[in-house]
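Lecture 7 notes: from sequence to structure.
We start with the chain below.
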Amino acid sequence: MSLSASFVSGSHKRTLSSLLAGRVLKRPKQDDGQQLQEAAIQLLDQHQDLRSLFREVGNPDIFRCQREEQRPAGVSSGTSGSMLACELRRQAARLGVPVPVLSVKMVLERLKQITEDSEMLTSSQRVQLGVLMESSRDLLSQEALCPKLLWQEYKRGQRLPSLEVVYDLHFYSVLSLKYLIESDEDVRSWLVPQLKALCGWMPPDEGDEETKQVQQRVLTTVAGVLVGAGFDLSRDGAAADRKISLLCCSVLDDMIFWVLDVVETVRSAGTGAELWIRIFDALLCGVSASADALQRFFTHSLTQILTYKPQLTVSDAITLQNEWTFAKVNPSLTLLFRKLASIFSVEQLLGHLQQVLESHEVSWKHVLSFLSTLLVYDQSGPPSLKDLLSRLLSSAFEGYDLENLITAFLLARQGALEGPCIFSSYSDWFKMSFGGGSGYHASSKKSLVFLLKFLSDLVPFEPPQYLKVHILHPPFVPVKHRSLLMEYVSLAKTRLADLKESLEDMGLYEDISAAGASVQPQCQAAQDVAKAVSLFESTGRIPATVMEASIFRRPYFLTRFLLALLKPRVLPVKPDARMSFIEALRKADKIPGVQYSSYVEACLTHRQRSKSEVCLDTNDDPLEVLKIQLQEFTELVVDGNDGEMSAQLSRISHTLSIIFPGSPDELIGQTVIRLNTDSVFAELHGKVVNMILRSFCQWLLKASQTNPPNKQSPWASRFVCMLLGNKQLLSSFIQRLWDLFHHQGPSLSAAHLLGLAAFMVHLYASPSPLVQLPSPIPSQPAPLGEALSLALVCNTSTNMLFCVRLCVAAVCYGICIGESLPRQQQQEFIPSSLYKKLLYLIPRLMPEARRAPADGCMTDRPEEELISLWSNITDSATTWRKTARHLWRHGTFQQLEETPQYQLCFLEWLDHELRVQRGEDALSDAQRQEYQRWACLERYLARPEGRGGCGGDVKKLCSQLLGAVMDQQSSDLSLEKPCRTGVAGTGTCLPDILSRLQELVYEMEVANLSGSRADLSDFLFDAVSQRCSSMATSSSLSIGAELGLQRALLTWNRVLLVLPAALFIKVKPEGGRMTLDCNKLIEHVNQHQREVCSPAGFLSFHITAHFLKGLLCASVRCGHPGEEVSRVWSQMSVRCPLLLVSTARWWQHLSPLLLSLWRRLHDGASPPEQLQLLTDSQHWACRLEEGRVLQTPPAAALLLAASLHRAWRGCEGNRLSFSAALSSLRPERDAKNRQVLVFLLFLCVNDYLSALLYPQERSHEKAGGFCAELLTVLAESADWLLIFRSNEHSVYQSVTMVTSDERARLMPLAFCSLLPQQSAELLQTLVRGPGFLHAAILCYLSVLQLWLDGHIPTPTTPLSKEQAMVRTVLHLKRAMKTNTITLYRQAEPPQILSHTKQFLLSLISQTSPAGLASSQLRQLESQCADLDPELAAALSVNLEPHSLSPEMDFL
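Predicted structure tokens for the same chain:
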């Protein structure tokens, strides 16, 4: 053993540390201590060089060994230190110097060897320095080292002390930083430069993380000590402490000022300033300073920043404020603001800001930039700012404090500059604060003068957009002080003129906001055009604002508005709203002819050159910037905090405002976006929209990889809210989504569908503008989410599949994201329109879903159910059917159906079903019938009415089926042509719905569910009557409402024809027998059917036949069928003349059908008497037309007239036979014949009136000739005048029920048009008839009133020039032959009125005063007084009884 030891000793030179480490393996004995000490001293005698000893002690390997190995008990850790101290004392005694002097000298020599004047040490140097510091600490513990002397000698030998050495001295407790600060008077002179140098130092190796960490620790430790010494108030307030505190504050202030200078000069501050900024994060976790000291330091630093270099005046701030928004300020400055604000609430920060503003001269750039940062990063900032502004304004007007008023205006404008997602616009704030009688300035005249004086003082410095706000939305001023306001307005307008920004460049509908840069006039003019076109489309009139601008703002109207309106484009084949608006302006002489001609030529050239030509911004820089910003936002989706996310969104919004400059901050709540599906995307805009949508889908997938939607940050809602702030961008988004859903939906992948679904959910949940849909979809402006859902049509199998996939994804996302929210807030994320589409589609496409959900669909573990639902929707391997099945059974999905807004009512289901194209349906005909029966009978029949069902009422179900079918007349479907595409089976599901209605009606009839057939008949007629009455609520319908009513009745007629005819005739017991009751049928025909007759005055053949078949079939239940039919029919000439006349018209075709039906029903019995009279009347009329006079049948006069009318309508103008037949009737001898002729005259006049209104029928001469012949026969009788006076009771009054009310009102027009066309002889005869003058004047006044009220329609198809010439020649020939006063068929109402008036004036002058009764004369004079005073004067002069003296007769 000793040999081995000797060999080791001889072979290897062992160091002191290894010797000490080896010897501690043996436990020394107590009595061997003296011997051990002597041996050590003897060994040290052999090493007299202390420098070598320090180097040996500083050996890294030995140091590492000493730190890693565990020391045995009983050995002191300072053994080596004690040995060094002992040797130092020995050497000091020998040299005659103090021990501390010698130890300091040796430590500094070793320190110089290690550091070698480097800014930061290497890893090996750092280890050696650490060993030296440990040794020095040991010497210090042995009182062999003087810290003060060490620092003095170190500083004397160094120009600037190294911060890392200072840090190590502090860390190893050799020399604390606090001591250095307190003892070194020059500490500021070297500490600040060294801190700056260390902040700016960059390691040679970028991957040297250890050095970077040491650098950060050094800075953090120094800053923490400075903060603790400078802001800790727990110590007593001695003068020395106050001096130290001020010193530390000054050092920290110097660093803050250095950072601000760097930020001011360099856009990208680099790592130097940012490294010092990051220490504010480290200080939050440090222990060098108390929480109170830290808070005081942050407050002090914020104050220093806000007051640093207050060089800019208030006027400068007003002018330059636009450049200090969050998106434009240096990111390092916003980072500094965020760090300082992190430990305070928004209220504390704004309160401190107010204190600083009241007590210091401030740097307005820093103040306003700080405010922007606060608003962007903290959601509670905007409401707190509003409170602060309210306090400032109240204080300003209470004490007339100008500084508070200036501050309020600057802060409000700064908030508005950040956009509507952050703070309200400046115009809104100004109107809210000063626009009403309760404004801050409205309390007294002094307050008003104070405000106006302030605004006037701002005028020289104001940006133009604020001046425009003040002019367009002026403060409230009482009338008596109006001159004060006008002085300011005049001053502001002068300033705008100096800036060359006249109000003339402002848009007609411009909503001035707080944007820094005003909207370009060209862009604003385009917005004005869009708004004006939208208003014109909805009202049909040129907006008053446009008309006023064409007069009072003519320069803007001509040079801006018309230039934007007449921008060349490819004109559509069918005129759109823009073309109609241009045409209306042209007709109103608002567009110069030359400008309009140039526009038309440019449009033609545009069409020839290309289909579309869009002016693009060729600068790609914004697109690249946006691409980078979207990529940066990707990282924030998962890991970013709210502040960073808001900041990035603000930057993205700023970039988008450059790409889409069209009024990005216009208030959304007051905006209607018009969707134009025919417009073409600008290439740049299309790229941006696609990039954003693609990025949104990628963000959603990335965020969903780690968390379901309810566990994700609110990145999606904030992003969508940011997009909603830019109207032009939003319009592009809507157009793109509409195009995607309409044309590319089936080709979208699952990832795209999920992203678009989430995007729609957030659009639905966010406050959004209204959207005006394209003209083929008539509707009022709808909310954005609802409008986009209308693009999801369910009319074909392909569209259904896409729609159900998108809706399943959207509803799943909405359920997941709102799972942790209250019920009401949860519904904000589940679009009701998409949910209803699922209620329609899932049972239709998945028969298993038609069964009620299992009772176990509600789970006790909602979190697991949520995760399962989300995994289904995000798993690419899962089919949509599995996901839809899972969603259908989900508890939240089922609960939503209990909420009224999420219930798919029966009418909504019918609307969806009626839009399905049968030829492209996902279901076969049999499957569709099965599904519809399930929906009608199982789903909606028994469902309570409160949940959208029918409450078990079959009649209500039928009523809604009928209503839905009639509603389709207002949709894009053609009810008259069910197979729109021309291919059988490709039409809508209308036939299927009609089949369901037939089934239900037959079931009600057979099962007698409604009580009796009479009830069923009343129910059907009442349902139609209520619907028509609701559409015709006023006496004078608009053209659109009238057309809608007519189409609804035509739809009802189609439904009527598929229902059993007998249903419409009631059979009731009366007097011990069953009788027929046609009251409801008669009421229906008189009230509704006569309004839609075509041709006028006749029911269609099918409707007439259906009603008569119903009459015959219902008579089977009566004891005497023939008598009942005759009894009912005998009343028709008085109660329902339209049905009688129509039957006579169609009898030639009806008689075989009805007579055959009668024989089948009654075993070959002879027809009823009244039916036989119909046949006899037709036979009599035909023979009379042939010139053979037969005995007149005992039929009603109206029936005989209708039979004659039918016979002579086919005589092809044979007026000779017509005249002969009329003469044979001899009306002067037989009253019945006179009635027949008067009724016939009415029917011919009706034909003539139709020819006037519809010239294309070409039956004018024929009808006019028949009327002339009839008038010739009836000239001696006054009865014929009664058909033109429907309000008088007579035997002829019932005939007015043959035509519509509109036709009845126009009968006087036919009178006035016919009268001048008659021969002079006939006119002389007619004039002599009793009551002619009275009737003629009343007809003239009626036509004049109709003309003044605009109720006379113009002919639908005017004649061409050639046709007009032919008509003129024929007219002249006829005039020469018959010596008549003629009128062209195309004469306009003014011409008719003029001719009639001249005729009446001539007639009045030839009439004796006895020609009119006194009461008639007074009536005519009172009516003419307002309508035609000239006619009234003629009546008074010529027909008034003479009461004057003979001398006055000359008057």
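Points to note: The chain is about 65% helix and 0% strand. Residues 1421 and 1433 are 8 Å apart (CA to CA).
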